Structures are given as C-alpha cells and as structure tokens.
Amino acid sequence: MTVKPKYWVLLLLILLGSIPPSNAASTPVDPKVLHIINRLSFGPRPGDVQRVESLGVERYIQEQLSPESIPEPQSLTSQLKQLNTLYLNPVELSEHGTTNLPGQKPTPSERKAANKWAKQVLDEAVKGRLLEATSSPRQLQEVMVDFWYNHFNVDAAKGRDRLWVGAYEQEAIRPYALGRFRDLLGATAHHPAMQYYLDNFQNRVDNHPDAQGNIRGLNENYARELMELHTLGVDGGYTQQDVIALARILSGWGFIRPGQQTDNTFGFDFNPKRHDFSDKVFLGHTIKSGGEAEGEEALDILARSPATARHISYQIAQYFVSDLPPTTLVNNLTHRYLATDGNIRDVLNTLFHSREFWDAKNFNAKFKTPYQYAISAIRATGVEVENTRPISNLLQQLGMPLYGCQTPDGYKNTADVWLNPDAMNRRLSFAAAIANGNLPLSTIPTNIEQREQIGTGQRPLHKSPSIPVDAWQLTNTLGNSLSMKTQNAIASSSPQIHSALILGSPEFMHR
C-alpha cells in the first residue's frame, strides 16, 4: 500500500514535535539497556532487548568487545560464501581475466568483460558488508568497521579501487577493528587500495632536484592525509616540512602491477629505485636511511604521538557519545590510549564505563546517519535479508553510498550533515515501504536483468507475498521506548500506518 498524503503530514508533525502528548501509559525498558544496545550495535533485533536484560549490561559489553567469542549464524556464513569475489586478494582481483602483454591495449570485448567483473566485485563487496551489518551478532565489530572505514576512507569510484575496496575492508580494516591502532594504521598504509586512492604509488624521487630545489616526482598527497586525517589531526603540530619529509620516507611504496612476478598476494610493493635513501628529520626525529623500514619507523612515531591519541579519542567519543564530546571524556580516553599503546578495545572499554557515556542527557541524542538508519530499520523488523539492493538504493538516495565517499575524510556522523527535509522525506518513504512489507529484502529476483543488479552466485527464489510489520512486535523489539507524543500520534491514526509511524518517529531517527 501507499501512505496517503495526510499521513505524511502526521509523520512530519511527529518529527517536528507539534503533536501534544497524551496520558497513555507505557512500560518502557530500562533506558540503560536501550542505550547500550543502540550504541554498541546498529539497533535491536527481535529478542535483543530481552536478551540483554537477562544477560546484564556488563556481560553484554564484554561479549561485544570479544567478537571472536560470538558464533556467527550458519545462514549468514552460507550467504557470504556465495559471494565468489569477497575474499579474493588484490592480486587475484587485478589479474582476473588478464591475458594482455604489458603495454597491449585491451579489445572492446575485453574492456566489457573487465567492467562486468569490476561491477560484480563491487556489488558483492557491498552485499557482504550489508549482510554482516544487518545479520551478524558481532555488532560492535560491525559498528567499528563502519567507523574505521570512514576514518581510513577509500572511494570505490576512483579507478582500480572499485576492485579493491572489498579486499581493503576484509584485509586492512576488519581484522584490526578492535586491536592495536598501530596494526590498523600499518595495514591501511600498505594496502594497494590506499596506495592508489591517495596517489602514493606515484610518489618517487629523483636524486637530482630541479633548478628551484624541488624533488621531482615527489607526491605529498598521502603523507599529508596520513597526518591530517589518519593520525595527528589538523592541529596536530606538524609542518609543511614534515609533510615533505614523510613523502620522502614513503617514496617507493606502491603496489604490485598486473603481470609482475611475486609471491606477495597482499599486493604491496616497495620499489627501491623510487625511494629517497637520504636521512630525514620527521616531527623532530632523525630517521636514518633504511629503505622500507623508514616508513615503519614513521608509522611508529605517528601511532604513539599524544596528538594522535587525542585525535582518535575525540572521534571515538563523538561517534559513541555526542556530536560535541565532553573534554573530560576525550582526556580520559587519550590517557588510556597512551597507557595501552593504542589498544582500541581498552579505549572502548574505558568509554563504555565512563560517567559521560552514561549521562542521561546523551541517551538517544545521536542522530542516525543514513547507513545507521537503514541498518537499524532492517534489524528492527527481524527480516532475514537476502537481497540488499533496496538498502544500497536508499543509501544512494540519501547521499551515503557504501564505499562511495569521494573525499578522504569519509562520511561524517553528526546531525548537521544528515538532518534536512529532503533526507527526512526519503527516510519516511523507506519507513513506509519496509513497514508495509513492500521491500523485497527476503527475495531474490529470478530474471537475468534483475539478478545482475544484485550480484551473482545466488539461488533463484520466487517473490514472497508482502507481509506488513506488526506494530506491537516492533514496539516490543524497540523496548517500548516511544515518547508520549509519538504514542498519542500512533493511537489516533489508522492501524495500517502504525509501524510506519514507529520507524519514522523522532525516537527511531536517533540512537
């Protein structure tokens, strides 16, 4: 069914807070239970609130901090195994179907085949991420994958990276999302996706400077973003001379080219012929000539810097607590980062036990990004997702396509970026569609054209009848957390739109 115009007005009135509260009784769940679920996960699935009530908040925190202890459902692992390209390494992804000799131009049919392969690779990367985000019980890990991918952003729209973003997430982000920041930093720095995206593969030196003293071939792009975005922060105390020094340190870092003989499947390549072997001074440290080892020393310096500790701590606090995180919290997280040599799990554990995290004014105070909203809506309905195309379509419409942020700073997670009238209308349309059972999330199209839109390797299924989401069950899943204003609006509306009103409510727009 479609939602009548008057109901759109009703939804907007709820969002604007102009419907007066009623005296309807409600029995909400402990706000602390809802708060911990909404921050450590993408929102509750049916039964999650009751499970955390039984388990206890502390045990839930420790469980989520140790994702390896949480078994993945067989249905999810089976779906991921059907994605034939998801776990291929960068070399395999690049060399698939390559038969041309170096310098030989591909034929039109070869270009068509290459484009089809690249589309399959990217489609399956997107599907893999969305399946894990919606269905995995290792929710904190999924939250941190989202956080770190944006921190170390790579845009799939840039050339070869459409082949590599999935491998980049699988190899450089996921294994380190709750580990040591230095390991995460090193994995992203070495990955071909990052080397290509920020142009360091073009970073080379000529030992004969030009007449102005410039080092020809030096590319500072990655060196600058490595300090400004990934580590120290824009006010981290570095200078342009440090940018130049770091570019020289990282000269020669790149990736293996198709046809290049190597046993390295990860794809990183250090070319000594492109490297500046002179001594450098970087952030006050003298780095002696050592080839590739110079870059490792620079990464050590960056990862252990107090400026990096503060920059990372601020971003984590902003993601989990409030758009303007308290200075006291950032200071405490910074101290913990430095005391544990950048142990992300320990920093998060400190955060989840902080006074600021549990301050009631921060409950349900973070406006959901489009990604968070879409995933939380799917999870709340309890639907078993097989077709992720409706989710990725919404993300496209809302300006947050997965792996599609063009700028290296990644997508923001603050309300000022995502809260606007057009975006709200699109969210409400999505809420109505999913509430009425009109999104084919549990079906896979059977004709060839539709199958190409969602990726290959799936078994054909027939479309099941539309089944509306039960409003009572939805309310129970969300812990009876709706405000009196929203309850009053729902009670005075047609039962046919109750679930849409819940998924379009201001409470559900926040976490």
Mean pLDDT: 89
What's the SSE pattern? Answer: HHHHHHHHHHHHHEEEEHHHHHHHHHHHHH
Biggest β-sheet strands, sense, barrel: 2 strands, antiparallel
Which strand order does the major sheet show? 1-2
Helical percentage: 40-55%
Enumerate the spans where pLDDT stays under 50 for 5 or more consecutive residues.
1-7, 15-25, 447-464
**Taking Cα atoms only, what radius of gyration do you get, to the nearest Å?**
25 Å
Count of DSSP-assigned helices: 26
Distance between the termini: 28 Å
Roughly what fraction of the amino acids lie in strands? under 5%
Shape: globular
What structural class do helix, strand and pairing data support? Answer: mainly alpha
Strand segment count: 4
Describe the model.
The chain has 511 residues and is an all-alpha fold. Among the domains are: 5-42 and 366-509, no CATH class; 69-179. The chain has 26 helices and four strands. The protein has helices spanning 5-16, 31-40, 48-55, 57-65, 74-81, 90-95, 108-135, 139-151, 161-173, 181-190, 192-197, 221-230, 240-249, 292-303, 306-320, 327-339, 344-352, 370-381, 389-397, 415-418, 421-435, 448-454, 471-477, 484-491, 498-503, 506-509; strands at residues 253-255, 268-270, 280-282, 285-287. A two-stranded antiparallel sheet has the order 1-2. Strand 3 and strand 4 form a beta hairpin. Helix 9 (161-173) runs antiparallel to helix 10 (181-190), helix 10 (181-190) runs antiparallel to helix 14 and helix 15 (306-320) packs across helix 16 (327-339). The longest helix has 28 residues, at 108-135. It is globular, with a radius of gyration of 25 Å.
